[in-house]
UniProtKB/TrEMBL annotation:
One of its GO terms (molecular function) is molybdopterin cofactor binding. It comes from Halopseudomonas oceani. PANTHER family: ASSIMILATORY NITRATE REDUCTASE CATALYTIC SUBUNIT, TRIMETHYLAMINE-N-OXIDE REDUCTASE. Keywords: Iron, Iron-sulfur, Metal-binding. This is Dehydrogenase. Belongs to the prokaryotic molybdopterin-containing oxidoreductase family. It comes from the Bacteria. Residues 1-58 form the 4Fe-4S Mo/W bis-MGD-type domain.
């Protein structure tokens, strides 16, 4: 007899509700849940692939140990003992920092990793910790820490009530939203336009989102800072700012006004390729809208001015009275409160050993990981722990990191696959698949465009002998404590922590785990509401606009302004998203990779002609760090002078065990991106705007 289960999809930030029909442990169908109050029945192709993940014969089910002949299965006890023995010995000989840690993006999609990862990793007491944050979203967090007092107090566009949405470097139709949890985004954009509102997209490519926007402005990669400065300068010079209670709670406004006075629209226009009058009109339209919001995502964050761009976006929203107001940007108030005063985050308390890059919240920029492995001396990384990450394909200069991993003394990975990174491991510890365990969206409810909550019960039974991710971290933690003579700390299952958190949260008078279980479709807690003035956590209880690092970085813009605009004939590289892909971890599923190839280099026809290249031919793309051969596709959706390769491909390394992915290998854009091409404020990787050469292969 079949049973229908209701839960959220965990594969991207949209957390869409699903109705999953099963018979025993067999999945019969996966559909959107029309009763989910947030996603309203919306579903994307990724959710359908949950069945492929569950049934994939190449997904690891038991711990694997590297042997001379390849790999062999071992018991959990043997695996825990081997890992802790090797890590403890390396730290005893070389110090705590000889062990590094890399946490991949899927960890925040799996609440057991978030609640229990540090049960083990914290015992390592290493400063060599890294994550996908510094190739993704670090600028958002740092600006929020500076302005609002907590790294997770990131204001979210109130898309359902705004009149004017200015979007830079984002493509939510492909990503389903990013640091903006927004399921069913197409209908939300159409509703915005239907009520007379306007969506303006600024992007070097006419993306899927730009194609349905009210207006699309092409911009050269890496020059968003010039556009944003021109906008802010116009708002000040034409007296388009608007008072608000939040703006009255700021400090340093006059300093910011003076600091941007030289960056007029006329001076910024040549750098970004958008005419000065168009920049000024954009500022007037934004300021003139009753409710407006400016939002920038990946294309803005992963460039050399990523932090400055995110700061400018916040300042633009603040001075126009569009922060903490309906229709502007608002701060979600999730049932599981993550922006607690106990752990606001910190920045630049120490620096990396080799290049001197600053830490953020206890993590160093991942662009430094390879050099920290390769460079001899005290503190050199000799062993590495990875969890749900594939940095060989997802971090800059992946070939260099690939070579570095080969020379480690020991490596352990918590992962479901033998992929481009874990093929270097000595031990791989696979957790249960997502449908085999419960889940709660700790992170993405904090970025949601509505206040919602849902507890997801397991759909399928836990296989005999398998461990959930949190159980793996607890097992490692207990074994490591025993090996190093430390007392093992008590712990409890993640669902109990969720129960305590929601009871202690802002809706604790009506929420508990039992209540969540009684509402399998999720609970709508209402639209986002103004709350900043009672939640701000800066030491001064004010929004400190005149951040010294940002005012100083404006001097870098002034000094480099002539270099921002691309030279004649120059090509700059950007990435791109696709709705059937998510980083590097969804290419071993036939229903996601089938159809037209998605890994070509996109290039404007005029740029092809100028290089005597033909649509469809093989070309070589070169940067300082390497080159790849790939088919080129003529596309007028690209701005001239801009080429695009998608992120996450390159499944052509020996030793991986993902047959379908290998059949659709593609090339890795991070074999071109440069670990030295950074935002110097944070060390965040600058993956967009890299200069490349394209020639016939």
């Amino acid at each position: 007899m079949s049973v229908t289960h209701y839960r959220a999809c965990h594969l991207c930030e949209a957390i869409c509700g699903l109705a999953i029909e099963t018979e025993g442990d067999r999945i019969l169908s996966i559909k959107g849940d029309p009763q989910d109050p947030f996603s309203r029945g919306h579903i994307c192709p990724k959710a359908i692939a949950l069945q492929d993940i569950q049934d994939d014969p190449q997904r690891l089910r038991q711990p694997m140990k590297r042997v001379d002949e390849g790999w062999e299965e071992i018991s959990w006890d043997e695996a825990f003992a081997l890992v802790t023995e090797r890590l403890a010995a390396i730290q005893q000989k070389h110090g705590n920092n000889a062990v590094g840690v890399y946490m991949g993006n899927p960890n925040v999609h799996n609440y057991g990793s978030m609640t229990h990862g540090n049960y083990f990793l914290g015992q390592l007491h290493t400063r060599q910790r890294y994550s996908a944050t510094s190739v993704d979203q670090l600028p958002h967090h740092l600006v929020s820490l500076w302005l609002y007092g907590h790294m997770l107090m990131i204001p979210i566009p109130d898309i359902d009530h705004t009149d004017y949405f200015l979007m830079l470097g984002a493509n939510p139709l492909a990503s389903n939203g990013s640091i903006m949890t927004v399921p069913d985004v197409t209908k939300r954009i159409k509703a915005l336009q239907g009520r007379g509102g306007k969506l303006v997209v600024v992007d070097p490519r006419r993306s899927e989102t730009a194609a349905i926007a009210s207006e699309h402005l092409f911009i050269q990669p890496g020059t968003d800072v010039a556009l944003l400065l021109g906008l802010l300068n116009t708002l000040f010079s034409e007296q388009l700012t608007r008072q608000s209670p939040v703006l009255e709670s700021t400090a340093g406004l006059a300093e910011v006004r003076d600091a941007v006075a030289e960056f007029t629209a006329e001076r910024m226009a040549p750098a970004c390729g958008i005419p000065a009058e168009q920049i000024r009109q954009l500022a007037r339209d934004f300021a003139g809208a009753e409710r407006a919001v400016c939002y920038g995502r990946m294309g803005v964050s992963v460039q050399r001015y990523g932090t400055l761009c995110q700061w400018l976006i916040q300042v633009i929203n603040l001075v126009t009275g569009n922060v903490d107001v309906p229709g502007g940007s608002l701060f979600p108030e999730p049932a599981f409160e993550v922006a607690s005063a106990r752990r606001p985050g910190h920045f630049d308390k120490w620096r990396s050993r080799v290049s001197g890059l600053p830490e953020f919240n206890g993590e160093l920029p991942v662009a430094a990981l390879a050099e920290e492995i390769l460079t001899p001396g005290e503190g050199q990384i000799r062993a590495l722990v990875t969890s749900a990450g594939n940095p060989v394909l997802s971090t800059p200069n992946g070939r260099q990191l690939d070579a570095a991993l080969e020379g480690l003394e020991f490596m352990v990975s918590v992962d479901l696959y033998i992929n481009e990174t874990t093929r270097h491991a000595d031990v791989i510890l696979p957790p249960t698949a997502s449908l085999e365990h419960d889940h709660y969206d700790i992170t993405f409810n904090n970025f949601a465009v509505r206040n919602v909550t849902r507890y997801n019960q397991p759909v399928l039974s836990k296989p005999e002998g398998a461990l959930h991710d949190w159980e793996i971290f607890v097992g490692l933690g207990k074994a490591f404590a025993a090996a190093t003579g430390q007392p093992a700390r008590p712990t409890q299952p993640p669902h109990e922590l969720v129960d305590m958190a929601v009871r202690a949260g802002p809706y604790g008078d009506r929420l508990s785990l039992d209540v969540l279980k009684e509402n399998p479709h999720g609970i709508d807690l209402g639209p986002l509401q103004p709350n900043l003035l009672r939640r701000i956590q800066t030491e001064s209880w004010r929004i400190e606009l005149a951040q010294p690092a940002m005012l100083q970085d404006l001097q870098r813009v002034a000094a480099e302004l002539a270099e921002l605009a691309p030279a004649a004939g120059e090509l700059r590289l950007i990435g791109r998203r696709h709705v059937r892909s998510n980083n590097s971890w969804m290419h071993n599923y036939q229903r996601l990779v089938k159809g037209k190839p998605r890994d070509q280099l996109l290039m404007h026809p005029d740029d092809l002609t100028a290089r005597n290249l033909q649509d469809g031919q093989q070309v070589t793309v070169r940067s300082r760090v390497g080159e790849v051969q790939v088919a080129v596709c003529a596309s007028d959706e690209m701005a001239p002078g801009v080429v695009s390769l998608p992120h996450g491909w390159g499944h052509n390394r020996p030793g991986i065990q993902m047959d379908i992915a290998e059949q659709h290998a593609g090339v890795s854009v991070n074999d071109l991106t440069d670990e030295r091409f950074l935002d110097p404020v944070t060390g965040n990787a600058a993956l967009n705007g890299l200069r490349v050469e394209v020639v016939a292969a």
